């Protein structure tokens, strides 16, 4: 009686191995004995054990916390000053400009805001304008541009893409630059004056170039017919956007910064990801290593208030900031790193405790249950 | 996007979508008129020609038809709809190509696949249509292609040719217009069938006469009934009825017939073969259904998100957008916020549709296809014997193989080889056939006896190990001589001498063949028979006996006898039959011998052997004359002929002398008991559904260890009435409850000490006996149920099926015997309906087709009985034992991989898509995307598809050997643990969490950040690049965590995907592309400007850690606190790899020492004699009559596999009548006593005195049985003792949670083991 079951069993046990080894019977139907086909590819089989997971958590903690501290300290060393000049408040010097804005007025409205810096700003200072509640990331807004037009393509210049509608043509004359983004270009001008203790003001020189991406300035944006001198001719047959007060070739006197390659324009055209954003406006270069770029003291911000934000409850800000290797002031990143690092470390400790208390099971596993 | 069945290489197996092929005129056909030889007349009816078209397309129709078909898929249509939406500029939130690229990709992959399939169909069509056949045209035989054969033509067939169309047999070269056909391709039966032409047409032998034949056939319209045909032949003003007996069907092969002529009745698509190849039901897996549900939910979710965002849009447009119009005026067509919200809804539907990416369906199919290839390629499922590899015929079901809960198996040909071998015998109280134990102990393989040396007529096939029997015969033991003489005389076998000296026996049942062959090998060679004589070579000397009578077998008599007169003139009756019947009819002086023989029989029966008792009786001339008169009288009567014959037989079969008993082994296929043991360890319930008799089925149940003596109780349901069955079911349930109550009490009294000893962890945890949730759920103990076909018929009735299911679901093994093919299907249907479990049916014959088609998964055993089962199946292989590999290895892996794939897939798409949702709140709900359009296009098809595909195809949690060693690893699939709605929610929650992190971390960081040159970072393009990069990195880390099996391919794909992301990113943001297409590639410079910023990388690192750390912690905790078995196995694997010694045993210290599980009896001891059952009569009655009538003799020159079909219809009819009689008769007799109803078969017997012997047996067994890897085998004995295999073996032989009993008896706590091993 044992005979039948035993012999069958033996054959069962050995058959596969035997046929695997004795592959001499090279028969067409017999599957190939390759590691791939037999699913025996050599493989690394990582598993989550205390030996790998716990060190990982501690490592993350130990790496993240110092980075976080570093970031936090760096961020704290950055000086930043921000002033809202929208003029919503009646006490604000810009209140009247804010209130009495009219699209048709030709006279610019000016206002000046005094402020003071408690601490001197060493090294280069970057001057930004910030807008709030401005949806540069709205789908219709984002696509309302014609990159080939902005790249100086002559055909596109006179035949702006349909995406630019309704800012493609004005009285059947093609608009250059076309589209809603260009049309809504920020056109406040800001000047910064240092108010000496003796009440005299000296204007702080603001650098207008070097505020855009190199690729934007040199590749993406190009004036029609090359960046020649005669932009007026190049833009012949086009008109400027409806919200603008002057044609695109009058944005700057410098031919290297005029027309489509005007950096203010380029910066504006790089749409923001979020409705509250800041864009680089000017750079205040450090002149000498001896004096701070912006010493502490009183300043006046002179704003030519052209840009209306009243209708959509927008806010306008002017920001002065120094930067470090990691950019501007960014306390969040440092705090986040410290937090995540500590949480990971803590988790590591908790897991270690759990492992010590309950982890014995896995060293003597109950396979058969 | 379903991958169609593989194209079978045989044209017969082509599955056509009939519904489209059916010509309209066919439907209205009420009867068919065919006029022989008159083409013009027949053409009026526009019958289908013999040209078959199984292909779907031609070159012109391919594109439109294929596209039409593909767009019938909901998913494809949905994406087309999205595409159309995108063409509306106000809605379009994505570029058109983000949808069209994947869609075109998917459509073209499917189209290419369809085209190749169709190409092969065209090829096989052509091949078939261009076969040559001889058509009688204008009186001359001409060669014509099959496709040109018309209805009404007369064609000539030659031997071994395929029948070209459904023919009416007109004449043949054989006498009486007979011809023989093999219908294997049609119905799967390998035996030959006989067809006979009408006698009027059988004379039309030559072409000239046939050309004159102008009969008209009026018959039924085309249908798919293979066994039925009705029609009338009108010829020469006479009517002749036609039946199936006159028809040759397309697909058959002409055999043993020189040639024949037939009239084409049905051609091409009208043939029964083609009508039968109708559409198979499309099977879907439960994952498929779940996936469809989930996809619907996701659509719901999508709509919800769309609505939320649309409302947001309305609010925003009203509150802010309308005020913002100076800078961003509304589109002229969109003049109010409500309309804008409406459009925004659709825009968001487009953006968010990536939660259900089109690539999901394609990927799933690709993964399944990959798994299918792995099954096809598996050498361990290749049978070198029949040279067949496993074949996946439906590629879409693989993961369901990992969820099977019920297996329904056919018996003959599936569990058994349908080979009977004469294994043991008991002659005159002496048992022969035991394998010498001393030889076994020495580990040598016993050599079968070599008969040919002394007996030139011996048959090489017999393996008999006991030389003493041969000695007994040689030394002239008269009883042994008589024993074998009986075997050589008392049977209905036909012999055939193909070549000189080479005898071939044609036995109607394999049992008889085995017995006669055994006699032949022991020197009593049955040579030939005539209706009146039997010639036997007795030890080399030809002896011719006069055959006086055959007292035929039937189910009630359970015995058959012959009365022969030997050359000396002595008359003797030889009888063989079931011992239960035979022992009642023995002469009283046999008492002592009977007792000894009974002991032997018990032994045989407990081995699962089929037994027969043999006896003889000497008759005097007077007795014979007297009885012969009675017999003749009985034979002449018309009324109650059966009864009177039976009474006559009863009269003479008395006072017999017992000779001995035979034991025939119904040879199981290789590895069947082990497979069944492993499968049942994997919690799969195995049912045997067989057409066989109850005794045979129960015997097989024992021999393949489905039924064991350790089972608490085996119930027999054998009722013939509704009430009876109900009563029996109720009783068995009561017994179950009672039994388990006893067991509980026992457990309670044994107390807590036992529970503590169980704490070592390798047996089931002690259940809390005090809180049984439900009566039937609380049942412990193992039960089995045997139910017969007629009881099953009642049990399947609507009002009882619930009761039946209730009872049956507690049983570990169920055997249904005497079931019809339809009942097989019904049983499966019942389980499918009530248990919501995945069912698998495995079978080999045409009678299994219905169940194979009904079950979730149908498996066909190939290379046995024909191809019908294989054609209907989803998987086919050659051996039953491959099933364990198919389920436990491939199925398990497939399920695991598919689940992991789906989890990850939904996760990654939610993580990807939901970022848009959060962004919506910051962009005025304007449906602005976060990412670059190319990123959206490529994310699913390039950046993340391959790693997850590689995981879905190659992942393994534990190696294949382990899944066979620990069948419990199969359980998660059955319980649907790895991917269900809960897991899905976890996945999408994780996805949403990731999307929150991916949006808000960059948001918080970048909104204030500036580049190191002062330029603000918060521009849209930088944000897009940062988020996209973080996303790609996070999902790559996640797939790295999910991948458990890193092959080179996985490495390549994961790193390659990351690499391709950065490469493509830089290319897309390059100057060159921008200068070519400034409109399309306006992200110029973003990659380099963004990725050189340290802040961006710090952001990405931060987001990655925030996304991954919780996942890591959760997974670690899960492994730590609630480890799955697979985790544990994996862990042990790792531990042992680390301290691997050459040949070291896998998991030491966990197993049970081989000796300690020896308390479990191995069947023989425990199996009490009360249920001895088997007897080797598997055949029908009627053959005795056939032999004595001499009807079959004239055909003896033909090699026929069975007798059943070779005779005239009238004879078959009598046979059939008898069969019916039997079926109706059997109910009236009480069921065979051996297995008494609802009675406990035995109690587990653990007699301590028996243990030592078992220990060594089991120990030996352990070392050479299951250890597959050579490394295991070589391990030193001391270590093997603790081998992990113990757990399996424990149940293999114990079946019950014997660990409990064992540990309580010999208490092998872990410490004990440690002590032992240290010693």
From TrEMBL, chain A:
Region Disordered, residue ranges: 1-32
GO terms for biological process, alphabetical: phospholipid translocation
Any one annotated GO CC term: apical plasma membrane
Pfam (any one): CDC50
Compartments where found: Apical cell membrane; Cytoplasmic vesicle, Secretory vesicle membrane; Golgi apparatus; Membrane
Keyword Transferase part of the UniProt annotation: no
Topology class, membrane: Multi-pass membrane protein
Keyword Glycoprotein attributed: yes
InterPro entries: CDC50/LEM3_fam
Membrane spanning stretches: 47-73, 332-354
Family note: Belongs to the CDC50/LEM3 family.
Protein name (database record): Cell cycle control protein
């Amino acid at each position: 009686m044992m005979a039948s079951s035993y012999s069958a069993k033996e054959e069962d046990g050995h058959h596969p191995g035997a046929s695997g080894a004795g592959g001499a019977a090279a028969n067409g139907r017999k599957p190939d004995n390759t590691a791939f086909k037999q699913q025996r590819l050599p493989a690394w089989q990582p598993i989550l054990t205390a030996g790998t997971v716990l060190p990982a958590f501690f490592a993350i903690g130990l790496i993240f916390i110092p980075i976080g501290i570093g970031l936090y300290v760096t961020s704290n060393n950055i000086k930043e000053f921000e002033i809202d000049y929208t003029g919503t408040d009646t006490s604000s010097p810009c209140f009247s400009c804010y209130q009495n804005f009219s699209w048709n007025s030709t006279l610019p409205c000016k206002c000046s805001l005094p402020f003071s810096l408690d601490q001197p700003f060493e090294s280069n200072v970057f001057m930004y304008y910030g807008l709030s509640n401005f949806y540069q990331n709205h789908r219709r807004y984002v696509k309302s541009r014609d990159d080939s037009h902005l790249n100086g393509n002559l055909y596109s210049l006179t035949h702006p893409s349909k995406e630019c509608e309704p800012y493609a043509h004005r009285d059947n004359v093609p608009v250059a630059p076309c589209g809603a983004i260009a049309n809504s270009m920020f056109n406040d001008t800001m000047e910064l004056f240092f108010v000496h203790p003796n009440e005299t003001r000296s204007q702080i020189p603001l650098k207008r170039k070097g505020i855009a991406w190199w690729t934007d300035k040199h590749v993406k944006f190009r004036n029609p017919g090359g960046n020649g001198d005669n932009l007026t001719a190049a833009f012949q047959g086009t008109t400027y956007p409806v919200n603008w007060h002057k044609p695109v070739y009058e944005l700057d006197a410098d031919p290297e910064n005029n027309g489509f390659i005007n950096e203010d324009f380029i910066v504006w055209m790089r749409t923001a990801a979020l409705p509250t954003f800041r864009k680089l406006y000017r750079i205040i270069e450090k002149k000498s290593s001896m004096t701070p770029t912006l010493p502490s003291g009183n300043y006046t911000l002179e704003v030519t208030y052209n840009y209306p934000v009243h209708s959509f409850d927008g806010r306008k800000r002017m920001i002065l900031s120094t930067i470090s290797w990691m950019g501007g002031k960014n306390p969040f990143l440092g705090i986040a790193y410290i937090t995540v690092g500590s949480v990971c470390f803590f988790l590591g400790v908790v897991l270690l405790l759990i492992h010590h208390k309950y982890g014995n099971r896995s060293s003597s596993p109950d396979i058969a249950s | 996007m379903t991958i169609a069945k593989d194209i079978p290489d045989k044209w017969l197996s082509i599955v056509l979508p009939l519904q489209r092929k059916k010509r309209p005129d066919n439907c209205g056909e009420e009867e068919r008129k065919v006029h022989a030889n008159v083409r013009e007349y027949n053409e009026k009816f526009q019958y289908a020609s013999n040209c078959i078209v199984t292909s779907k397309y031609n070159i012109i129709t391919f594109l439109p038809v294929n596209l039409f078909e593909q767009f019938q898929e909901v998913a494809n249509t949905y994406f087309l709809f999205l595409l159309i939406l995108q063409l509306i500029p106000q809605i379009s939130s994505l570029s058109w190509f983000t949808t069209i690229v994947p869609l075109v990709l998917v459509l073209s992959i499917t189209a290419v696949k369809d085209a190749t399939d169709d190409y092969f169909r065209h090829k096989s069509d052509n091949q078939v249509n261009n076969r040559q056949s001889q058509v009688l045209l204008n009186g001359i035989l001409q060669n014509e292609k099959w496709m040109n054969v018309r209805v009404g033509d007369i064609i000539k067939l030659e031997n071994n040719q395929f029948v070209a169309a459904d023919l009416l047999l007109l004449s043949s070269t054989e006498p009486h217009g007979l011809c023989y056909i093999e219908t294997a391709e049609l119905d799967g039966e390998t035996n030959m069938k006989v067809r006979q032409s009408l006698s009027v047409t059988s004379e039309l032998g030559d072409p000239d006469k046939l050309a004159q034949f102008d009969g008209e056939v009026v018959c039924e319209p085309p249908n798919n009934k293979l066994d039925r045909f009705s029609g009338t032949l009108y010829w020469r003003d006479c009517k002749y009825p036609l039946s199936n007996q006159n028809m040759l069907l397309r697909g058959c092969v002409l055999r043993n017939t020189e040639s024949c002529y037939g009239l084409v009745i049905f051609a091409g698509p009208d043939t029964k073969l083609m009508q039968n190849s109708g559409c198979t039901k499309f099977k879907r897996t439960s994952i498929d259904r779940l996936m469809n549900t989930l996809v619907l939910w996701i659509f719901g979710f999508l709509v919800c998100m769309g609505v939320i965002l649309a409302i947001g849009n309305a609010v925003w447009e009203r509150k802010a957008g309308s005020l913002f119009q100076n800078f961003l005026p509304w589109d002229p067509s969109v003049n109010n916020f409500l309309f804008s919200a409406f459009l925004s809804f659709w825009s968001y539907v487009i953006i968010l549709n990536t939660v259900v990416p089109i690539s999901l369906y394609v990927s799933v199919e690709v993964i399944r296809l990959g798994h299918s290839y792995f099954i096809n390629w598996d050498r361990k499922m290749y049978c070198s014997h029949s040279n067949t590899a496993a074949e996946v015929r439906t590629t879409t079901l693989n993961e369901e193989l990992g969820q099977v809960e019920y297996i329904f198996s056919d018996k003959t040909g599936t569990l058994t080889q349908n080979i009977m071998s004469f294994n043991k015998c008991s002659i005159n109280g002496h048992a022969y056939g035991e394998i010498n134990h001393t030889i076994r102990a020495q580990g040598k393989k016993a050599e079968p006896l070599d008969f040919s040396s002394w007996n030139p007529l011996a048959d090489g096939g017999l393996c008999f190990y006991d030389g003493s029997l041969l000695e007994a015969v040689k030394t002239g033991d008269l009883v042994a001589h008589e024993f074998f003489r009986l075997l050589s005389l008392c049977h209905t076998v036909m012999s055939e001498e193909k070549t000189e000296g080479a005898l071939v026996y044609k036995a109607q049942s394999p049992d008889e063949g085995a017995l006669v062959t055994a006699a032949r090998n022991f020197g009593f060679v049955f040579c030939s028979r005539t209706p009146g004589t039997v010639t036997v070579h007795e030890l080399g000397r030809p002896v011719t006996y006069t055959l006086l009578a055959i007292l035929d077998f039937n189910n009630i008599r359970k015995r058959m006898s012959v009365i022969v007169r030997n050359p000396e003139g002595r008359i003797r009756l030889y009888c063989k039959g079931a011992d239960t019947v035979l022992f009642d009819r023995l002469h009283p002086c046999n008492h002592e011998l009977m007792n000894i023989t009974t002991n032997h029989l018990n032994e045989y029966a407990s081995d699962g052997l089929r037994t027969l008792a043999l006896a003889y009786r000497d008759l005097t001339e007077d007795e014979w004359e007297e009885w012969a008169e009675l017999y003749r009288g009985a034979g002449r009567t018309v009324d109650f002929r059966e009864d009177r014959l039976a009474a006559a037989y009863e009269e003479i079969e008395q006072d017999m002398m017992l000779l001995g008993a035979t034991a025939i082994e119904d040879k199981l296929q290789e590895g069947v008991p082990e497979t069944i043991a492993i499968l049942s360890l994997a919690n799969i319930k195995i049912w045997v559904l067989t057409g066989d008799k109850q005794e045979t089925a129960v015997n097989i149940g024992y021999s393949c260890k489905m039924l064991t003596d350790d089972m608490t109780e085996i119930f027999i349901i054998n009722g013939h009435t509704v009430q009876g069955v109900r009563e029996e079911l109720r009783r068995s349930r009561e017994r179950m409850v009672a039994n388990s109550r006893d067991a509980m009490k026992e457990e309670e009294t044994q107390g807590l000490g036992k529970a503590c000893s169980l704490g070592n962890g390798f047996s089931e945890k002690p259940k809390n006996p005090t809180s049984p949730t439900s009566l039937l759920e609380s049942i412990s103990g193992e039960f089995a149920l045997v139910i017969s076909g007629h009881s099953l018929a009642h049990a399947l009735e609507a009002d009882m099926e619930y009761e039946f299911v209730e009872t049956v679901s507690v049983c570990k093994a169920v055997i249904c015997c005497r079931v019809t093919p339809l009942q097989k299907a019904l049983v499966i249907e019942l389980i499918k309906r009530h248990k919501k479990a995945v069912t698998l049916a495995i079978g080999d014959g045409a009678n299994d087709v219905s169940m194979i088609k009904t079950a979730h998964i149908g498996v066909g055993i190939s290379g046995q009985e024909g191809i019908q089962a294989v054609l209907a199946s989803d998987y086919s292989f050659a051996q039953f034992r491959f099933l364990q590999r198919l389920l436990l290895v491939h199925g398990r892996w497939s399920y695991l991989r598919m689940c992991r794939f789906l989890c990850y897939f939904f996760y990654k798409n939610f993580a990807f898509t939901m970022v848009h949702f959060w962004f919506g709140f910051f962009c005025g709900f304007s449906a602005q995307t976060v990412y670059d359009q190319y990123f959206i296009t490529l994310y699913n098809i390039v950046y993340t598809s391959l790693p997850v595909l590689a995981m879905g195809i190659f992942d393994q949690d534990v190696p294949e050997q382990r899944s066979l060693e620990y069948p419990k690893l199969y359980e998660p699939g059955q319980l649907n643990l790895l991917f269900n709605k809960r897991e899905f929610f976890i996945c999408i929650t994780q996805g949403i969490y990731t999307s929150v992190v991916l949006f808000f971390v960059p948001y918080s960081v970048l909104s204030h950040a500036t580049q190191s040159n002062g330029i603000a970072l918060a521009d849209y393009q930088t944000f897009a690049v940062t988020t996209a990069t973080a996303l790609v990195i996070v999902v790559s880390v996640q797939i790295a965590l999910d991948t458990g099996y890193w092959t080179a391919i996985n490495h390549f794909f994961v790193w390659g995907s990351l690499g391709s992301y950065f490469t493509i990113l830089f290319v897309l943001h390059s100057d060159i592309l921008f200068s070519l297409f400034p409109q399309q590639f306006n992200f110029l410079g973003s990659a380099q400007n963004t990725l050189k910023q340290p802040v961006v990388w710090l952001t990405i690192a931060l987001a990655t850690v925030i996304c991954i750390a919780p996942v890591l912690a959760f997974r670690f905790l899960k492994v730590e606190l609630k480890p799955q078995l697979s985790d544990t196995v994996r862990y042990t694997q790792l531990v042992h790899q680390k301290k691997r010694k050459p040949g070291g045993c896998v998991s030491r210290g966990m197993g049970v020492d081989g000796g300690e599980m020896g308390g479990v009896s191995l069947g023989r001891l425990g199996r009490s004699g009360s249920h001895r059952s088997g007897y080797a009569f598997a055949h029908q009655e009627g053959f005795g009559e056939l032999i004595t009538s001499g009807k079959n003799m004239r055909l003896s020159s033909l090699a026929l596999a069975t007798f059943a079909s070779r005779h005239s219809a009238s004879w078959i009819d009598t046979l059939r009548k008898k069969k019916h009689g039997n079926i109706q008769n059997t109910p009236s007799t009480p069921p065979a006593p051996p297995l008494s109803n609802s009675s406990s078969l035995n109690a587990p017997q653990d007699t301590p005195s028996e243990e030592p012997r078992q220990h060594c047996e089991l120990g030996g067994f352990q070392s050479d049985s299951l250890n597959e890897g050579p490394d295991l085998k070589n391990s030193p004995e001391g270590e093997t003792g603790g081998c992990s295999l113990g757990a399996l073996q424990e149940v293999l032989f114990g079946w019950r949670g014997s660990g409990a009993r064992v540990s309580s008896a010999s208490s092998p706590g872990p410490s004990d083991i440690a002590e032992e091993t240290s010693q």
